[in-house]
Design goal:
- This protein has 108 residues and is mainly beta.
- The protein has one helix at 3-6; strands spanning 7-18, 22-29, 34-35, 39-43, 52-59, 62-64, 66-67, 72-78, 96-100.
- It has a 6-stranded antiparallel β-barrel with strand order 1-2-8-5-4-9. The chain has a two-stranded antiparallel ribbon with strand order 3-7.
- A hairpin with an 8-residue loop joins strand 4 and strand 5 (52-59).
- It is globular and about 40 Å long.
């Protein structure tokens, strides 16, 4: 995986469920393919670091290991910073999270 492919960026559209250490959200993938296991280290609206891991991707009602760029899915993000995620609107803008991709799934 090249350096460019290792970056991951998701736009938060809606928080569906949020707990202290886990959030389920509808997101749009703003870069190339993002893989389950990606780690996110910052939000677009704060300089404070975060630590979240992409633990589940549900795309077209199927649990998958990767989400292609430009597509929308429901994801689960785990970590102590799940509480900082927020739903976006056209009026106040969309929160983005940025980090590094997880490992590519092994071919089966």
């Amino acid at each position: 995986m090249s350096d460019a492919e290792s970056f991951a960026e998701l736009q938060i559209a809606e928080i569906l469920n949020s707990q202290w250490t886990e959030a389920t959200a509808t997101v749009r993938n703003l870069r190339g393919t993002v893989f389950r296991g990606a780690r996110f280290h910052r939000t677009s609206d704060s300089a404070d670091p975060i630590d979240l891991e992409l633990t589940q991707i549900v795309w077209y009602e199927q649990t998958v290991d990767e989400l292609p760029g430009g597509h929308t899915a429901v994801v689960t993000l785990s970590g102590s910073d799940a509480r900082v995620l927020r739903s976006g609107t056209v009026a106040d803008g969309w929160q983005r999270i940025e980090g590094l991709n997880g490992p590519s799934p092994s071919p089966t």
